[in-house]
Design the sequence.
């Protein structure tokens, strides 16, 4: 599946789910082969909270 049908999320697109601090992000290559665990290959980017004062 390369695209999620809008009808599956249409009822939820204007709902506020709250705030969550992002600590990392995985950048996955979904067109490549999966590893032995069925996970896509990619990189993970970690964000340091030291640079973002609250």
Sequence:
């Amino acid at each position: 599946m390369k695209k999620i049908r809008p009808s599956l999320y249409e009822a939820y697109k204007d709902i506020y789910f709250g705030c969550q601090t992002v600590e990392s992000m995985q950048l996955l290559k979904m067109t490549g082969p999966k590893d032995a665990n069925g996970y896509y290959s990619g990189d993970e980017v970690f964000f340091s909270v030291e640079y973002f004062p609250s």
In short: Residues 21-53 form one domain. The longest strand covers residues 24-34.
